[in-house]
Specification:
- By secondary structure, the protein is mainly alpha-helical.
- It has one domain: Four Helix Bundle (Hemerythrin (Met), subunit A) (Up-down Bundle), CATH 1.20.120.
- The chain has seven helices and three strands, in the order ααβαααββαα.
- It is globular.
Length: 170
Amino acid sequence: MMDAKPLRDAYRALLDAAATVADSGATSHVPPAGEWNADQILAHVAIINATAIAAVSTIASGGNTTYDNRMALDTWTIERVIALAGGNTGLRNRIRAQGDALCALGGPALSEAELGTPVPTRLLSNGTVLVDQPVPLRDLITGLAEVELPGHAAQLLALLPNGAEAEATP
């Protein structure tokens, strides 16, 4: 059994960062050139979550699966998810529910054998292949908690006006 607390904490920090940016009162949250705005970051996370939930659910049902983040990098897909979710508030609600699902499925619901299942994985970032090999399901979940979600929380906070980011971080 896997402890879901680190994943739950990572979701809480991401959602706190998203709320801080949304509630900052700034008229626009313009990212640096080539970076995403808050809604695009949240849509990316929502797609990653859906991909993770699908992988975890497939393993839990005895099936074989893959994990590939390329759809979460596709601009058209990101914009479609923003529209379907209803914008920032809808995205935050979706991520909250997805986090609850992953914490339940990825924690106590899976056996050690399921968590150890190798999942063919392809992870890209900024056009660079980071991973292209089988990864144990446990490591995919841990990667969300330790890398993916904290990275996007920091990315969200970086959208705050100068000085506000320092006030928002503990």
